[in-house]
Amino acid sequence: MAATLLDGKALADTIRAEIATQVADFTHRCGVKPCLAAVLVGDDPASQVYVRNKQKACEQNGLVSQLHRMEAATSTGQLLERIDQLNTDRNVHGILVQLPLPKQVDSNRVLDAVHPKKDVDAFHPANVGRIMQGRPLFLPCTPHAIQQILLRHQIPTAGAHIVVIGRSDIVGKPIATMLMQKGPGGDATVTVCHSRSRNLPEIARLADILIVAIGRANFVTGDMVKPGATVIDVGINRTESGLVGDVDFNAVRQVAGAITPVPGGVGPLTITMLLHNTLLAARLQA
Ligand code: GUN
């Protein structure tokens, strides 16, 4: 039997409606609209699309968005100056520096400069440390999106073996950390695999829940999935046949119990979690 489709678009609509209500309530009580400032350096086409989608989502749900465009030749110092301005601007609650940054920029210095209370990506070391300790200020958007898919579809994580393929700072490391914390959406036994893992297919086949964020088109094939497992595909790969995930969807859906499509799975929820964090940032600063 083919797997249940975990429709991220429908879930995103539900959660966005909840957030819009909370934003309206916050604005009514505090007289302030939560504001996200996005910093976009250079003219990478994919980054431009991502930032535009983030801005559109803000505007559709009662938040304010600012776009700070800077030219491709921007230096680390110029970017630090801009971050400093945004840190002290009382009208700005969340700051998002779109990645990747141009080669000449020291990305770590820039991300470290964002005030932790405005760090809606949860990339600052203080926020990463808080997640590790199980007392997060913000949760990073893509891992939070994955956790919400599991929670809202009542896919149990407690005691489950969850295999994460990919060890990036943005997805693999934080989702593994979050799933092993105590409490709802956690309590899992987590294994992290990556490009250097030996026996990766055998390990993947042990997973009750398989989370794939390795950035390679159709990397996970049907034989790497335990029958009935839940498969969460975080990949977005542009190929000649269009946008595809890290999972060979047509093959894996014959084996899995539930699966996220690409597009329309994790993606729409990631932006939704950014809205959530921007509201949270505004509350922290109110
Ligand atoms: N580029 C790719 N993913 C992300 C993300 O989650 N946040 C930011 N700021 N840039 C990205």
Care to describe what's here?
The chain is an alpha/beta fold and 286 residues long. It has ten helices and eleven strands. Helix 2 crosses helix 10 and helix 6 packs across helix 10 (266-285). It is globular. The relative contact order is 0.17.
Quick take:
The protein has 286 residues and is of the alpha/beta class.
Distinct ligands, ions and cofactors found in the model: guanine
Shape: globular
Number of domains: 2
Pattern of helices and strands: EHEHEHEHHHEHEHEEEEHEH
Unreliable segments (pLDDT under 50, ≥5 consecutive)?
none
Mean pLDDT: 98
Strand order of the largest sheet: 1-11-8-7-5-6
Please report the total strand number as a whole number: 11
Helices, by number, come to: 10
- Give helix % range: 40-55%
| Content of β-strand | 15-25%
Q: Any idea of the CATH topology of the largest domain? A: Rossmann fold
CA radius of gyration: 19 Å
Major sheet characteristics? 6 strands, parallel
The CATH superfamily of the largest domain turns out to be: NAD(P)-binding Rossmann-like Domain
The separation of the N and C termini measures: 51 Å
The CATH first-level class of the largest domain comes to Alpha Beta
Briefly note the structural class of the backbone.
Answer: alpha/beta
CATH architecture of the largest domain: 3-Layer(aba) Sandwich
